[in-house]
Fold this protein.
Amino acid sequence: MKVLDTDFARDFIRMCNDGWSFGWHEANGGNASYRMRQAEVNEVKSGFRIRSWERIDTEVPTLAGECFLITASGSHFRNIAHDPKRTLGIIEVDRTGTAWRPCWGFKDGGRPTSELVAHLINHEVRKAATKGASRVIYHAHPANIAAMTCVMPADPAVFTRTLWAQLAECAMVIPHGVELIPWEVPGSLGLAIESAKAMEHTNAVIWPHHGLFVSGDTLDEAFGIMQTVDKAAEIYLKARACGTANTSSISNDDLSAFSREYDLGLSRRNLHAEPLLDLPVRVIERVERVQETAPAETSKPQAGAPSSEVLASMPWTFSFPAASAQPVELAEAMPASAQSADTVVAQPVQPMEAAPMQPVQSARPAVQPATQPTAQSAEPVYRFGMRLR
Ligand code: 13P
Ligand code: ZN
């Protein structure tokens, strides 16, 4: 079967085109990838035109042998439906997870998105976090989200609680909330790694003054998250533009009831963060206050990264090993007692899939270990294959 006759390719192109129609993809802004099922690869591989292997700037061993439909770097989303063989391509990851090669598309010498490493690392993280269900990574530039990052304190809990306060079902679509990473250069390894750390506990990561990076089991799910977060941000900005404080919003009690009814497991750190709904003058005061009370740089490696208290409240924590050649162990899931202390409706934290992990032997920059969530919890360990050269 031809690639463009398959359901997955048609659905992928439709998602890209819908994103363009929503105004999320100016010029070449945004990128997307879909991790193909083996049956889908078998269906189309007779039409592959294989080119030579190229190194990946990291290792993704749990994606070894997998194929991805992915946008080409520099392609304009408005052109994808009209010229898919030029604006899209299929790549295959090699058996060691250290190289990729083009198999289809990328007409006239195109290459995968400049965010290829971010896509691959985050596919690896989300594949493990969802026991193989996650297949889509989607990055777009919705203006409402970028605008919100101009006026919100760099605090993911305040950001999340403010978004949840706007739209009844926002908490249902992003029950783990959004994470917020520091500004990073587009296409950089730093952006890929910061996103992957955030993607360990959520599937929606805000790139300040840039856009949103989401994952989903399906194209519909990824698109739905993008649209819902953008819509909540739009409602927030419209209400702010009135120049008055909110007279009403979704309360903590409302959200708690919602969480119980639908078993959402909304975390306390997001639920009890105060949404930013004040008069504009108070908003400025609040942002300044949050910035002043932020821990010093030494105890908080990255501006905008979750604080140690926030990390302690997360369902699981990770830390990167220092630059030693110690083998990585799989982390234990947090004890049930620690989980139930953190959630409105306790949800079991699934242990990570025992993916074929390789020992980390890298000169990766050391990152401060996350604070231990409780005395009972296991030593935090890093569990995914982000090995840098
Ligand atoms: P690409 O055209 O390389 O995908 O880059 C677009 C983008 O949005 C980078 O963040
Ligand atoms: Zn971008």
